[in-house]
# Entry
Amino acid sequence: MSEARSTSLANKWFNLKEILRGYKSAAIAFSGGVDSTLLLFAAHEALGDQMAAITATAPFFPEREQKEASEICRQLGVKHIHCTAEAMSLPAFTENPADRCYICKKHVFGRIQQIAEENGLAVVCEGTNRDDEGDYRPGMRAIAELKIKSPLREADLYKEEIRALSRHFGLPTADKPSFACLASRFPYGETITQEKLKRIDLAEQFLQDLGFRQVRVRIHGEVARIEVMREQMDDFLRRDIRTEVNDRLKELGFSYVTVDLAGFRSGSMNEVLNR
# Structure
């Protein structure tokens, strides 16, 4: 890393902690991902015991992510609160309109805000960074309406800078693949059900166990559309892997199993909106 870049990153890290100190106390909406883990680490340094992590549990958040979040809080010595999000009971969410993410985030962050108030924490912070400003993200409107704080974005931090700082501080998420909630695997208009969410979760865990770290299983009715990184495409298309994946996903309830030749890209379900 160049000296200039190192200095810039150090300044951003200092600014991030100053922003957090200005809140006096805070709840960190904590998923266990790259962004929220660095935010949690910074908040713990800046605020000490005047902060806590709050993790929402729901069928569209895989159980493995919940366990990793709990383990990170244990390692950092941070108070960790779990709360249940009931978005699956909202027809406006399960019917999966184009603003599904707004509906979900308004509900989930409203619940986190309630828990924060009950624990005497002044603000709720979440892990949006500067790179998140480019994609279609209706959930950011909910964050703005609820006056949730986004310290990473305010400190002008980008994803690769967050990873660099995470490596510097030895955080276990430094090289963790990006994750989005399982509801993002559905095309807009296709009903979200717990059975389908479980099917997707098991399918993605199976592929990760095979060594495909950054992977998505998009669901289109009875069709699974698999996205893997382009540099892993040749490995995926080997005959033994193809057969194993096809057999396992059909066991999980998919009638047809396909691979997307364009490879993995975040937010691929939004491409139809762009068109």
User: Anything to note?
Assistant: The longest strand covers residues 51-57. DSSP finds twelve helices and seven strands in the chain.
